Amino acid sequence: MEVVIKQDYEQMSKAAAEIVSEVLNTKPNAVLGMATGSTPLGLYQELVRLHKEEELDLSRVTTFNLDEYVGLPVNHPQSYHYFMHEHFFKHVNIPLHNINIPSGTTSNYPAFCQWYEERITECGGIDLQILGIGSDGHIAFNEPTSSLSSRTRLKTLSEQTIDDNARFFERREDVPVYAITMGVGTILESRKLLLVASGKSKAPAIAQAVEGPVTSMITASAIQLHRDATVFVDEEAAAELTMRDYYDFIYNAKPAAPKS
Ligand code: PGA
């Protein structure tokens, strides 16, 4: 795992966007896994800027979002459908039919979840999965004790996640209790993982995910099992990492590895 510590949110977002744009330069028809939440907003803004000002082309990209609240229609301002269109999709040139977001209003959740998994496979799998992290250590809505082999399914949100997300709703009671989410197993099958975290509220979860044991209590720790995972954090989110000098040395000095 590579850990990249940037001074602030803006620099972290730009560095993470650079990874996405490198993937797209190498593979213009890449399949991208998208995340919602406040953290990836800066990354999306930078991708929009690269698209508008530096000709980053997304016309052959396919996307799969990680999760969606159950019960919110696509036009609900707090639905992840709405979020993605407002903050990203309407500003870039990804064809609408290439955009996949779990349905929060399907009549048959098990069938939909299975279809979503099959659709990912049909599209060749996810090349790069963008991830945030919850203060309870979740990735997507894989709350503590989620199986590390889980697939797309319904999940009950933890009290901590409901508290964290209540800021976006008028009342805490309005936060949906269920979500449909890709599983940890689904996420680990992506060819590359890019996790972004910012702010001091994320420092304990980041330390546990990066340096703690792999445990379903902190589902983000499962990224330790992945061969190509990069964690981008700002100074505040990095505050509880014990190996930060080592991460900085690797990233900044880029010591040349022996050739044979
Ligand atoms: P946030 O959410 O970026 O809004 O903090 C992250 C997450 O819950 O995955």
Please supply descriptive tags for the structure shown above.
single chain; 260 residues; alpha/beta; Rossmann fold; 7-stranded parallel beta sheet; 3-stranded antiparallel beta sheet; 8 helices; 10 strands; binds 2-phosphoglycolic acid
Write the layout of secondary structure elements.
Layout: E1 2-6, H1 9-26, E2 31-34, H2 41-53, E3 62-65, E4 67-69, H3 80-87, E5 99-100, H4 109-122, E6 128-131, E7 153-156, H5 159-165, E8 178-181, H6 184-188, E9 192-197, H7 203-211, E10 229-234, H8 244-253
Parallel strand pairs: 1-10, 2-3, 2-6, 3-5, 6-9, 9-10
Antiparallel strand pairs: 4-8, 7-8
This protein binds 2-phosphoglycolic acid.
2-phosphoglycolic acid (PGA) binds at residues 37-39, 132-134.
Structure at a glance:
The chain has 260 residues and is α/β, with parallel strands linked by helices.
